[in-house]
Amino acid sequence: MSPPATRYPLHRLSGQFQDPGQEAAYRRDIEPRVRLESSVALIVAALVFAMFAISDYHFVGLSMALTLLLTMRLVVVSSCLVLAYVLGRRGSYFRHAWLHALPLWILATAIILIVPLRPESLSTQVSGVVVATMGFYLLIPNLLPVATAASLYMGLGFLGAAVMVAEIPAALALRLLLLLVLTNAVGFFALLRLETLQRRQFALLQEERVQNQQLTEEIAHRKSLEAQLRSLAERDGLTGLNSRGHFMERARELLQRAQFDEAPFSLLMIDVDHFKAINDTWGHRQGDSVLKAIAETCKHSLRPQDVIGRFGGEEFIVALPDTHPKDAQMVAERLQQKVSELTVMEEMPDHRLTVTIGIAGVIDEATDLDALIHQADQALYAGKRGGRNRVVVSQEVEGEA
Questions:
Q1: Are 162 and 109 in contact (CB under 8 A)?
Q2: How many CB atoms neighbour CB 75 within 10 A?
Q3: Where are the alpha helices (H) located in 235-353, listed in sequence order?
């Protein structure tokens, strides 16, 4: 896998993602933070800008210049507070980037206007411009091109006003130009580094999110495979009944519970009569249809608490909890009747399906599942030897009765 720097390339001069989609995703991700920080920064800037009205009075006294300065400061402070509210509520950093840029241009214009309104304080204004320039780059969240353009506009406008209005000498203008260039360079590269680091951090976070998503999908896929494997292990693929192994687990639990509660428990072993002849005469496809039809009939004829499974080939096995062998015999006879009513042999509709069923029941607490299966199997083969299409109760059960 290629490193994030290759998949998330950045512009060298703006620090932004080269891919517009990635840049849009980044701005949407940081939008809540930017809106909050922009609002707080503008409120602080408005308060600081308002406080300098005290120095206006100190430099110009009660005059028309003071009125103009106070009016200008009132407009700027009001604009910043309104923008702080708007940015906090609806300042989309992706769709309304111009709205975030507007406060910089307002503040920059106000700082430039102070020079003609208060030219005698030029020496103190220089430090204010330097601080404002760094604030544009680092304190008020904005895109690097926006912060650079606003800072250059403020610096060049301030220098031009100083030359034309304050009439500073050329040497001082040159030193002031170098100071402003240095301030903008420091601010530019500081913000460029910050923008780059933030986007690289976002890229790493995106990589982690993608990896987490892939891991989640992989876990879900593995769980799905486990469920499929479990289903294959627990269900017979042809009939949908419990597999032999899964039936043994469930039936053994039911038997143990019945023995603990001293409740009756019976077992049915079901065999499809002449099934080999069906396969040999009409094919295995028809034989599969017969098995599925009989399995479906058995499922719909049993209670929800009963457990049925495919024991192998054409044999099915049923566990009947809370069922006495005599009641199990009635269940078996009902199953036998419903199977005989099935019409699944399209090629030979007159053929009647029949099953032979052996029944076993719990004799004492020592009886285990294997012994019950053996008893039911013996009863089943006794029925087959007796001519098939029969329900036979195990001799052990009959002898106990």
A1: no
A2: 12
A3: 244-261, 275-282, 284-301, 325-340
Q: What is the DSSP letter of 353?
A: -
| Among candidate residues 377, 358, 341, 348, the one with its CA nearest the CA of residue 278 | 348
Instruction: Count other Cβ atoms within 10 Å, centred on residue 270.
Output: 26
C-beta separation of 383 from 393 below 8 A: no
Pull the structure tokens for residue 364.
């004492």
Q: How far apart are CA 393 and CA 370, in angstroms?
A: 17
* DSSP state letters, 97-139: HHHHHHHHHHHHHHHHHHHHHSGGGHHHHHHHHHHHHHHHHHT
Which tokens in the block code for residue 231? 């289903």
**Inter-CA distances, 331 with 21, 141, 268, Å:** 68, 80, 9
Structure-token match 């989609």, residue found = 21
CA 289 remoteness from chain centre: 43
End-to-end, the C-alpha distance of the chain in Å comes to: 75
Rounded Cα–Cα distance for residues 155 and 179 (Å): 10
145-170 residue pLDDT tens: 999 999 999 999 999 999 998 888 99
Place of tokens 């593995």: 222
Three-state secondary-structure class, residue 380: helix
Contact 237, 246 (CB under 8 A): no
Q: How much is the mean pLDDT over the chain?
A: 88
Closest CA to 85 of 55, 20, 40: 40
| DSSP strand pairing (307-312 vs 355-361) | unpaired
| Contact criterion met (CB below 8 Å) for 94 and 125 | no
The Cβ of residue 238 has, within 10 Å, a number of other Cβ atoms equal to 12
For the segment 195-213, what is each residue's pLDDT rounded down to a tens digit? 999 999 999 998 898 899 9
pTM score: 0.59
Helix (H) or strand (E) holding 228: helix 170-234
